[in-house]
Amino acid sequence: MNTPQIQEDEQTHIDAFNARISSGKTIEPKDWMPQKYRKQLLRMMSQHAHSEVVGMLPEGNWLTRAPSLMRKAVLLAKIQDEAGHGLYIYSGAETLGTDRAEMIDQLLTGKAKYASIFNYPTLNWADMGAVGWLVDGAAIVNQTALAKCSYGPYSRAMIRICKEENFHSKQGYQIMAHMMRGTKEQREMAQDAVNRFWWPVLMMFGPSDADSPNSDDLMKWKVKLYSNDDLRQRFIDRTVPQAEAIGVKIPDDKLKWNPTTRHYEFGEINFDELKSVITGNGPCNKLRMKQRNDAHKNGAWVREAAVAYAEKKSKA
Amino acid sequence: MSTKENWPAWEVFTQQKNGAPHEHAGNVHAPDAEMALLNARDVYGRRQEAINIWVVPSVAITASTPEDMGPFFDPGNDKMYRWPNYYKTPEGIKQI
Ligand SMILES: [Fe+2]
Ligand SMILES: [Fe+2]
C-alpha cells in the first residue's frame, strides 16, 4: 500500500536523514536510513572485511621463510592485526542486519568480492616489504578518509584500524630500505617487487572517477569523502619521496613533479587489468579462494571443540 | 557443522589503566563467556590497551532508541539550576 500518508512519513525520514548527514552527524545502527544507503554500506563494508581476511594469505606465504626470527615475529604480528581488522569491520557490518556467518559464507562460496591486489602473487621476500609499504600505505590513505565517513560503526572501526596500520607500512618500508642498502641481488629483488606491485597498488583506489558507478550516491551520503582519483593522487604524492629516499625507482616513465599543481603527474593506469582481476581472472584468484576455503575447513575442529567445551561446561 | 553457524555476540568493555572506568571497545563472537574473554583479549588488548576486560552478552543490553531521543532526554534540558554557574556569587567572593 502506498497511501499519501506513507509517502509523507517516508519523506519525513528522508529529510531527517539528509539533515543528519549534512550537519556532519553520524548515522547509527538504529537510525532510519534509506535502503540504498544500507545496501551500499553493507557491500562496501563486507568487501572491506573480506579484503582484510584474504589479505593475510599473500603474507602468510612467507611466514615460514622469513629471513630471521625477528622478521617472522613482526610479520606474524602484522597478519594477526589484519585478522583483527576483518573482525572489527565484520562486526560493524553486522549492525546493518547481516550475520557475520552469512558474510563469510558469501566469501567462501565466491559470491563476494575483495580487494583486487590480493590476487597477485608474493614471489620473493622483498614482496613483504613492498606489500607493507605500498599496499598498507594505500590502505592508510583510503582508511584515513573512511574514518570520517557518515556511518558510525564503520568510522569507529576505521579509527581503530588506522592506529595499527602505521606499524604495517613502517615495517614494510624498513624491509625495503634495508634491502636497498644490501647486496646487488637484494637491491634487484627490492626493485623487482616494486616493479610488480606499483601499478596494481594504484588500481586499489578503484576505477577513475569518470567510470565509477557508485561514487555519486556514496559521496552525497558522505560514505566517501574523496573521489578515487583524489585518493590515488594523495597516495602517489606521499609515496614518491619515500621511494626516492631509499633509491628505489617507481616504474613509470611519465612520473614527474608538477610545481604548479604541486602534485605528481603519472602515466596511464591499465584499468582493463583491474576489471579482469576483479572479475576473477587475476593471477591468484582461484588460489586465494582455495586457500581461504582450506583454512576454514582445517579450522573446523577448533570451532567444534570450542562449542563442545562450552556445552560440556554449561551442563556441569 | 554448517559454515553458517553464528556464535552469539558479546560486547567488550576494557579498562585501560588502574582507576579508569571500563569503556566499550567493540564486540566478539564466541560460544561462551570464557572464550569471549580470550577473544576479547586477543582482539582488543594486543597493545596494552587493557588491564581488565568485561564481556557481556550483546542480547543483554537494553538501549534507548533514536526515536526516543527528544522526549526521553527532555527532562534534563530545562533545569539550568542544576549547573553551578546558574548561581551568582557576591562580588569579592573568590571561593565557594
Ligand atoms: Fe588491515
Ligand atoms: Fe595492514
Report on the architecture of this protein.
The complex is a heterodimer of chains A (316) and B (96). Chain A has one domain: Ferritin, core subunit, four-helix bundle (Ferritin, Up-down Bundle). In chain A, 68% of the residues lie in helices and 2% in strands. Chain A has 13 helices and two strands, in the order H-H-H-H-H-H-H-H-H-H-E-E-H-H-H. In chain A, strand 1 and strand 2 form a beta hairpin. The longest helix of chain A has 29 residues, at 152-180. The mean pLDDT of chain A is 94. Chain B has 96 residues and is of the alpha+beta class. Chain B has a single domain, classed as Ubiquitin-like (UB roll). Chain B has a three-stranded antiparallel beta sheet. The N and C termini of chain B lie far apart (68 Å). Classes of the chains: A mainly alpha (316), B alpha+beta (96). Chain A binds chain B through residues 28, 30-32, 80-81, 84, 87-88, 91, 94, 99-102, 104-105, 108, 157, 160, 164, 296, 300, 303-304, 306-307, 309-310, 313-314, and chain B through 1, 3-6, 9, 26-32, 34-35, 42-43, 46-47, 63, 65-66. Residues 82, 136, 139, 165, 168 of chain A line the site of one fe (ii) ion (FE2).
List keywords for this structure.
heterodimer, A: 316 residues, mainly alpha, Ferritin, two-stranded antiparallel sheet, 13 helices, 68% helix, globular, B: 96 residues, alpha+beta, Ubiquitin-like (UB roll), three-stranded antiparallel β-sheet, 3 strands, 22% strand, binds fe (ii) ion
SSE inventory with pairings:
The complex is a heterodimer of chains A (316) and B (96).
Chain A: H1 4-22, H2 35-54, H3 56-60, H4 69-94, H5 100-108, H6 126-146, H7 152-180, H8 184-203, H9 215-220, H10 228-246, E1 256-258, E2 263-265, H11 271-281, H12 285-298, H13 300-315
Antiparallel strand pairs in A: 1-2
Helix pairs in contact in A: 2-4, 4-7, 6-7, 6-8, 6-10
Chain B: E1 9-15, E2 22-29, H1 33-44, E3 52-57, H2 69-73
Antiparallel strand pairs in B: 1-2, 1-3
The structure holds fe (ii) ion (FE2) (2 copies).
Residues 52, 82, 85, 139, 161 of chain A line the site of one fe (ii) ion (FE2).
